[in-house]
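Homework help board

Subject: predicted structure for assignment chain

Our instructor gave us this sequence and asked us to write out the predicted structure in token form, then describe one feature. I got the tokens but I'm not sure how to describe them. Can anyone check?
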Amino acid sequence: MSRTPSPGPRRAGPWGARRSTWPSAHGSAEGRRRPGWTTPRGATAPAPCSTSAAVRGAACPRVACRAAPNGGSHPFVEAGYTVCYVSRRRGMPRGHTVEDVADDVSGFVREQLGGRADLVVGVSYGGMVAQLLAARHGRLLGRVALVASAARVNDWGRDVDARLAAAVERGDRSLAGATFGEYVLPAARWRWLRRLAGPLLGRMLMSGRDHPASDVVVEAESEVAFDARPVLPGIRVPVLVLCGDEDQFFAADVVAETVRLVPGARFVGYPGRGHLWVASSRQVPRDILRWLAEQPGPAATEAAEGDLS
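My token output:
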């Protein structure tokens, strides 16, 4: 694994990322905000260090986005990584695909990380992005961990995505919020609670505070169209897939297919666990670090760049 000096805070880019510094000798923290962009938490460990980028989608209420990492950067910081949270850029044009988001993130790696991310941790939608980032821009990456993610969203997830996009496009906040609530409480018995919380969730989702409402539509539509299976065999960086066997978005057979299609991929399963547990579990960073410790020497980064879709 390459080692690079740890840089100070850097200017956020249109992909919605922030870096902040936690110099252990001083016990202080500094960072910067960019109005209209997300400000996910980042941490820079003392030099020398490696670089880790955690990728996720961000067309969701602030509380849902912030809950996903669950303080998961701290184990990586303690292991000597510079950690950056990266979301998709704001103001995406209609038809912007997951492939396009992966290309956007590759620009962040080139411009903000000096052309190298030693570890990419993609969570949920971010895992979808990370798959295509590895397939299309493998020379920029050391290793990739896919958390609560796989090569294709199941039929139920695509149906919810399509209904959410339609509700947001119509400007129906109550319906959009209630539909978004299905991601968290999908069972029919919670329909009353989803409807009750719908107006509040809809206002958060479509407020424009963290992202234009149109981005919700674009991201949902990109999930519906996403299918990474054709490009997975071309990935040449080490990949770890971590998923629960009760994930409501990524069926167990699709997760198994994802692991099978990526050359040399490893798998960590969580019996009886669903999507949100894995996406927010403090166990996941420990499992990723254990996998990293087992890797022999520097990661291979010989995957050719280009459009592999």
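Reply (TA_rk): Your tokens look well-formed. For the description, you could write something like this. The first strand starts at residue 17 and ends at 18. That's the kind of observation they're looking for.
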